[in-house]
Amino acid sequence: MAAMIEVRELTKVYGRQGSLCRALYEVNFAIEAGAFVAVMGPSGSGKTTLLNIISTIDQPTKGRVIIDGREIDRLKEKELALFRRDMIGFVFQEFNLLDNMTIRDNIALPLTLNNRKPEEILRKVRELTALFGIDDQLDKYPYQLSGGQKQRAAVCRALVNDPKILFADEPTGALDSRAASELLACFQNVRNKYGTTVVMVTHDATAASYCDRVLF
Ligand code: ADP
Ligand code: MG
Predict the structure, then answer these.
(1) 125-179 pLDDT, tens digit each
(2) Pocket test residue of 48, 59, 201 for ligand 1, highest count of atoms within 8 A of CB
(3) Which of 96, 108, 115, 192 is 20 to 30 A (C-alpha) from 61?
(4) Could you read off the pLDDT of 19-39 as tens digits, one per residue?
């Protein structure tokens, strides 16, 4: 199967001489298209660093990242912006929804910014929120939702552009176990329905058990 993400000899060093921190050292792996993969390791082991680099938020000190056959560090600034917009969705531990917008407007925001047609936006928002079981919450504001519902809304927003890859950094970290298992089931549904490659950082073995594969 073709690799969606390929990482070669990836090294990341933070800081300057005298206070260097080696967060990643010569990391190699490949993730096949359509896989649901967990990245596990203790706190401080470089999980967030790794995710930020393979999602193009940060740059490696050394090594290569190849996504969907394209070498990321060869892309120019403009190409990278388009690449990010079309290829990548990102979910954080904190939900990062905008407080003064309804759930509908929060989820639609990436499409609104892309000047897509209103009826197309609505159709996509309905489809995703139905899959995530929050289609009856669209008129509400974030403070009116539970943590689990807010996180599912944040994932809908990350998916509204139909990205090929969804990155999630400890997405269940702030959720109770029931909300966490609902979210993880949603990730599985997304992968099954859209073929999205899902890469999730977690330090929770139960969360990782929902995945096809675990990278330590
Ligand atoms: P994890 O997500 O697994 O907890 P991180 O990737 O956040 O780990 O951090 C890995 C190591 O890199 C840690 O030792 C952390 O202190 C260090 N680190 C992370 N970000 C920075 C930074 N911006 N500057 C300096 N050191 C950093
Ligand atoms: Mg982290």
Answers:
(1) 999 999 999 999 999 999 999 999 999 999 999 999 999 999 999 999 999 999 9
(2) 48
(3) 96
(4) 899 999 999 999 999 999 999
pLDDT digit string (tens) for 56-75? 989 999 999 999 999 998 88
Question: What's the pLDDT at 37?
Answer: 98
Nearest CA, atom 14, ligand 1: 44
Q: Which ligand is nearest to the CA of 93?
A: 2
Interatomic CA distance for residues 108 and 112, integer angstroms: 6
| Cβ–Cβ < 8 Å for 157, 106 | yes
The CB of 189 under 6 Å from ligand 1? The reply is: no
What tokens does 205 get? 């073995």
d(CA 85, CA 159): 11
Q: Hey, whose CA ends up nearest to atom 6 of ligand 1?
A: 46
Question: 17 Cβ partners below 8 Å, 6+ apart?
Answer: none
Distance 49 CA to ligand 1 centre (A): 6
Residue 1 has pLDDT above 70, yes or no: no
Kindly report the pTM of this predicted structure.
0.94
The ligand 1 atom at the shortest distance from the C-alpha of residue 52 is 6
Neighbours of 209 (CB within 10 A): 10
Tokens 């029931």 correspond to: 178
